[in-house]
Amino acid sequence: MFRRREPVPFAFLAEANRFRSNVAPPPRRRASAGQIAGRWLLGLTIVAGLVGSLMLGMPALATPSSTPVQQSQAADGH
Question: How much is the pTM?
C-alpha cells in the first residue's frame, strides 16, 4: 500500500517534498510601447547590419570569371 522511500544521503533533499510552496509568483508586467519599439528597432538594426555586411562582403569573395586565367611561362615550356 505505501511504498517505502529509499534513504537519501542529504536530509534536506528528503525534506524538500514537505515544504512545497503554494504561493504563486506575481504576474509579469507588460512592456510599455517604448520598450516594444526599442526592441523592434534593435532587432532591425542587427538584421540590417548582417544584410549590409553580406552585400558588401559578397563581391570581395566572388572570383572574377571574365578575366583570362594566367599561366606561367614555365607551363608553356619557355
Answer: 0.48
Going by the DSSP 8-state scheme, the letter that residue 17 receives in this structure is G
d(CA 73, CA 78): 6
Residue 26 DSSP symbol: P
> pLDDT tens for residues 35-52?
999 999 999 999 999 999
Contact 8, 14 (CB under 8 A): yes
CA gap 73, 28 in Å, rounded: 74
Confidence of residue 55 (pLDDT cuts 50, 70, 90): very high
Burial of 76 (0-12, 13-18, 19+ CB in 10 A): exposed
Long-range CB contacts (< 8 A, 24+ apart) of 16-25? none
